[in-house]
Write a structure and sequence with these properties.
This protein is mainly alpha-helical. Helix content is 66%, strand content 2%. α8 runs antiparallel to α9.
């Protein structure tokens, strides 16, 4: 048995005896010594095993503290996200007691570490997927949907289930509002494929669960789509996705006019997202919010002519769908 194994065995006995505070403090001190010696592998082994033992014993605070310390060591050692390093974190994440307050910080630190040392600027999709799944299971939809949006291909199905379940607790006419909670963020990160998949999953579930819901199938040479006469906001989202796939700015502008009432019904919640979507996919820049007095003075004195040009916004080309975040 190695020195580290003997250390873990001693602390395991303390934890089994209920000496949680003593075990936590000793594990921290021992790990700190290894860190000072730059023996990061030993420190990681101590912290991972110690945190797991404490979490399994229901000690979320002490175990969560060691989890965050483990990520600090990952950062000092510049550990990159791979199967082994992520596997330890996911094991600990799954070991957290439900609704443990320290879990949120661990998830934030975990995805932040993967963003800094990995290849995904928004954090590793697998880590986001598992975090979103656990949060959804714990009835924390706001946090769950954020992580599932940045997850893997499998996350889209979980996200559709989450939003639909959430929708069933509200009024029937709000289907479009709940679908938009996923579609807009997915479009804003350039994941058109996932946005289309989500819409299909959500509306399929909607039709299957509401057999009396009126649905009209509209077919033409260029498209096939389902129209929901009683759910205009959902129709708007369907046509928005179609406009993006076609790269049709004119269709997009027409939708804004036709569905103005539904957009206004969102009380401004859709405005910023739609403005950014218009810029990303159609090259439509939002109108400049100028100061009339300053604009007049600028024109009078010739100001503004030498101002540096703003960089052009990055545009997502259509109809080819953007790459998936997998």
């Amino acid at each position: 048995m190695s020195k580290i194994d003997r250390t873990i065995a001693r602390q395991k006995q303390k934890i089994e005896e209920g000496q949680f505070y003593e075990a936590h403090q000793q594990l921290r001190v021992i790990a700190s010594r290894y860190v000072k010696q730059s023996n990061y592998d030993a420190a990681i082994g101590i912290l991972f095993n110690g945190a797991q033992l404490l979490l399994q014993a229901g000690q979320g605070g002490s175990g969560g503290d060691l989890c965050v310390y483990l990520l600090d060591v990952y950062k000092q050692a510049e550990v990159k996200p791979d199967a082994a390093s992520k596997g330890k974190l996911l094991t600990l994440l799954r070991a957290y007691p439900k609704r443990e307050p320290t879990r949120k910080r661990f998830v934030t630190e975990m995805t932040g570490w993967s963003a800094k040392f990995g290849e995904y600027p928004a954090g590793d999709p697998e880590l986001h997927h598992v975090a979103g799944q656990l949060l959804a299971d714990d009835d924390e939809p706001y946090e769950a949907e954020r992580h599932l949006t940045l997850g893997t291909r499998d996350s889209t199905q979980l996200l559709a289930h989450l939003e639909y379940t959430w929708y069933t607790q509200d009024s029937p006419h709000t289907a479009g509002q709940y679908a938009a909670r996923a579609i807009f963020p997915l479009l804003l990160i350039g994941n058109l494929r996932a946005a289309n998949q989500f819409f299909l999953l959500f509306t399929t579930r909607l039709s299957q669960s509401n057999t009396s819901l009126a649905v009209q199938q509209v077919s033409s040479q260029s498209c096939d789509m389902r129209v929901y006469p009683s759910l205009p906001a959902l129709n708007f989202l369907s046509l928005l996705l179609m406009a993006i796939q076609r790269g049709s700015a004119e269709l997009y502008k027409g939708l804004l006019g036709h569905y103005k009432a539904q957009i206004e019904e969102a009380d401004g919640a859709w405005d910023e997202a739609l403005a950014r979507i218009a810029e990303m996919y159609f090259g439509i820049r939002p109108p400049k919010q100028g100061n009339p007095l300053m604009d007049m003075m600028s024109n009078m004195f010739g100001g503004g002519g030498g101002a540096a040009a703003k960089p052009k916004p990055q545009r997502v080309e259509a109809p080819a769908p953007p790459p998936a975040l997998d």
